[in-house]
Design a protein that fits this description.
By secondary structure, the protein is mainly beta. Helices cover about 0% and strands about 50% of the residues. The protein has one domain: Peptide methionine sulfoxide reductase (Metal Binding Protein, Guanine Nucleotide Exchange Factor, Chain A), CATH 2.170.150.20. The strands form two sheets. Strands 3, 4, 5, 6, 7, 8 and 9 form a seven-stranded antiparallel sheet that branches. The chain has a three-stranded antiparallel sheet with strand order 2-1-10, with no helix packed on it. Keywords: Metal-binding, Zinc.
Length: about 110
């Protein structure tokens, strides 16, 4: 297995892995701060980099049934959130293809 190539981001504020500082996203790609995750507050992002996606599975959530994939930091393999693949409720379709990053698992990085 070779070295992992990390993508470095530039922006007003960069969010990264709390464990290893790998960059994930920026405030420019943040869509909402009004989400909840497994560990409390979570943010919705349009674009996230430097993550590995797990297998899809159906998960009942407070807003209905969704098909999601857990996402993991590609540098340290910490689970940091999930990606929405499919929303079964028409009002939740805007989440498809978007990412949740758990506030507890990320921090602002330089």
């Amino acid at each position: 297995m070779g070295m992992t190539h990390l993508e470095f981001l530039y922006g007003t504020r960069i969010f990264g892995c709390k464990t290893c500082n790998a960059h994930f996203s920026t405030t420019e790609d943040m869509m909402s701060r009004a989400f909840n995750g497994q560990y409390g507050r979570a943010y919705l992002f349009a674009k996230v980099v430097n993550v590995r996606q797990g297998e899809p599975n159906d998960r009942p959530m407070t807003t209905g049934l969704h098909t999601v994939r857990d996402i993991f930091c590609i540098k340290c393999n910490t689970q940091v959130g999930w990606k929405y693949d499919k929303a079964y409720d028409e009002a939740q379709k805007y989440k498809e293809g978007k990412f949740i990053l758990e506030r507890e698992m990320i921090k602002t990085v330089d």
